[in-house]
Automatic annotation (TrEMBL):
Main location: cytoplasm
Post-translational modification comment from the UniProt entry: The Fe-S cluster can be nitrosylated by nitric oxide (NO). Upon Fe-S cluster removal intramolecular disulfide bonds are formed.
Function: Acts as a transcriptional regulator. Probably redox-responsive. The apo- but not holo-form probably binds DNA.
Residues reported in the UniProt entry to bind [4Fe-4S] cluster: C14, C39, C42, C48
Matches recorded under InterPro entries: 4FE4S_WBL, Whib
UniProt remark on cofactor binding: Binds 1 [4Fe-4S] cluster per subunit. Following nitrosylation of the [4Fe-4S] cluster binds 1 [4Fe-8(NO)] cluster per subunit.
Gene encoding the protein: whiB
Residue ranges of every copy of the 4Fe-4S Wbl-type domain listed in the record: 13-72
Listed name of the protein: Transcriptional regulator WhiB
Keywords: 4Fe-4S, Cytoplasm, Disulfide bond, DNA-binding, Iron, Iron-sulfur, Metal-binding, Transcription, Transcription regulation
Compartments reported by the entry: Cytoplasm
Family membership: Belongs to the WhiB family.
Disordered: annotated segments: 63-85
Length: 85
């Protein structure tokens, strides 16, 4: 990814946060909530979320979304139903 496409990252509220908060080895609801609280204050949340969805970032909190939330947002609503057993 060219640097000019992710230049917004330099203005991210997470720049001064512990990377483990956004890329934990063992994710937990508390860690996710703390990371999302940082994202909620971030001036580049929209750019970050858009990038992560477009790039298919599989790990970590990006733009206030967990990996599972990003996966769900990429799948059309009608396709999300569990398969019949
Ligand atoms: S939205 Fe969250 S992950 Fe993205 S740059 Fe801002 S603080 Fe970091």
């Amino acid at each position: 990814m060219p640097l000019e496409e992710i230049g917004w990252l330099r203005r991210g509220a997470c720049r001064s946060s512990d990377p483990e908060l956004f890329f934990p080895l063992a994710p937990s609801p508390v860690q996710e909530a703390r990371a999302k609280a940082v994202c909620a204050t971030c001036q580049v949340l929209t750019e970050c979320r858009s990038y992560a969805l477009k790039a298919g970032e599989a790990d970590g909190i990006w733009g206030g979304l967990t990996p599972e939330e990003r996966r769900r947002s990429r799948v059309p609503e009608g396709v999300r139903r569990p398969a019949a057993s």
